[in-house]
Design goal:
Blueprint: E1 6-10, E2 17-22, E3 38-39, E4 48-55, E5 70-72, E6 75-80, E7 85-90, E8 95-99, E9 104-110, H1 115-135, E10 138-147, E11 153-157, H2 164-173, E12 177-180, E13 183-189, E14 192-198, E15 202-205, E16 217-220, E17 234-244, E18 251-254, H3 257-266, H4 269-272, H5 278-289, E19 293-298, H6 306-313
Parallel strand pairs: 2-4, 4-9, 11-17, 17-19
Antiparallel strand pairs: 1-2, 1-3, 5-6, 6-7, 7-8, 8-9, 10-11, 10-12, 10-13, 13-14, 14-17, 15-16, 18-19
Helix pairs in contact: 2-6, 3-5
């Protein structure tokens, strides 16, 4: 572990991925470090690690001449297959190098604390953690996850503004557990596929309690919503692929495994960028796509009405024993 003044965070339950942060950078993290992350006193036996420092006179790094492998926010990343390394560069000058073979990332950001630096940092952390998790056999997926009363996880998959948070919160307030509304880590081993949630504050429409969407979102702490907060890893039962159709009634329809696979790949682009792990990622996502899966089109009739949503979803999740109890 780096010497003080550093703060360490174990990002997964078994401390396989640890982030060590220069204390000056802590305000830049915002809510990126999820609520389930434990403080880590040392890097110990972590399989992968990230080290973040702020630099007062950070000179802008020179990017490679060829096009970046991927881009998230204002951060570009180049993966060098021959050396099994990666390089990142943000719009504000923050940069990072990754030793993919050694499973280590070293990140630098300007010493100034402001929103643009924070935004670049959070993109750098997402790219770094995704690539490193891939190298230790896990998958960072942009998806929500809820846990049934019987202890099985359903992943809620979709683009931004597709109703993931609303669906997760509705199911959680009606008796299910909430793993996450935005990012999950998939574990696949010995025939088991399980999900661990990276739970962060939720972004909820101001009109959810009044059952009338306003289009304006506020930040809500999960603990304030009186929901169960399991940590996982939890065995995965299937996937729900959400979209919003405000002018229609909420409906559920079957989708093919290939449609589910396309949706899952769309939510994990960072891992397919690393060709060393891409074949395994494809195998895991293929397995996941063959589990029970449905398309959920969310109308206003279930907005802010948890039991109504559960009633509509009941046929799709019968295998996980959905109950009809809960608050309206």
């Amino acid at each position: 572990m780096a010497d003080p003044p550093f703060t360490g965070f174990a990002l997964v339950q078994d401390a396989a991925l640890i982030l060590a942060v220069d204390d000056h950078c802590v305000p830049l993290l915002g809510s990126w470090v999820h609520l389930n992350a434990e403080r880590a006193a040392s890097l110990g036996a972590a399989q992968a690690s990230m080290r973040l420092v702020s630099v007062r006179d950070l000179s802008r790094a020179t990017p490679p001449l060829h096009a970046p492998t991927l881009r998230i926010g204002n951060v570009d990343a180049w993966i060098q297959e021959e050396t099994e390394t990666a390089f990142m560069l943000g719009a504000t000058g923050g940069c990072g190098t990754l030793d993919l073979l050694g499973c280590r990332a070293d990140l630098q950001v300007p010493h100034a604390v402001h929103d643009d630096v924070a935004a670049d940092l959070q993109s750098m952390l997402t790219i770094s953690s995704a690539l490193l998790l891939g190298r230790i056999g896990r998958i960072l997926l942009h998806a929500g996850a809820v846990v049934t009363e019987e202890g099985r996880a359903w992943l809620v998959v979709g683009d931004a503004r597709s109703g993931k948070s609303t669906t997760c919160l509705s199911l959680a307030t009606s008796g299910w557990g909430l793993l996450s509304d935005d990012q999950v880590v998939l574990h696949a081993s010995a025939g088991r596929l399980a999900a661990e949630g990276w739970l962060r504050p939720l972004h909820l429409d101001d009109g959810w309690e009044e059952r009338t969407p306003t289009g304006t979102r506020r930040t809500v702490q999960p603990s304030a919503m009186a929901v169960g907060l399991p940590q996982g890893p939890v065995d995965v039962a299937g996937t729900l692929h959400t979209s919003v159709a405000a002018d229609q009634s909420t409906s559920v329809s079957a989708i093919s495994a290939s449609e589910a696979f396309v949706g899952l790949v769309r939510q994990s682009p960072w891992l397919l960028a690393d060709r060393t792990v891409a074949p395994r990622v494809v195998d895991v996502l293929s397995t996941l796509s063959r589990l029970p899966r449905s398309a959920v089109r969310l109308g206003l009739d279930t907005f802010g009405r948890p039991v109504a949503l559960r009633e509509v979803l009941a046929p799709a999740v019968t295998a996980s024993g959905i109950s009809r109890s809960g608050t309206t």
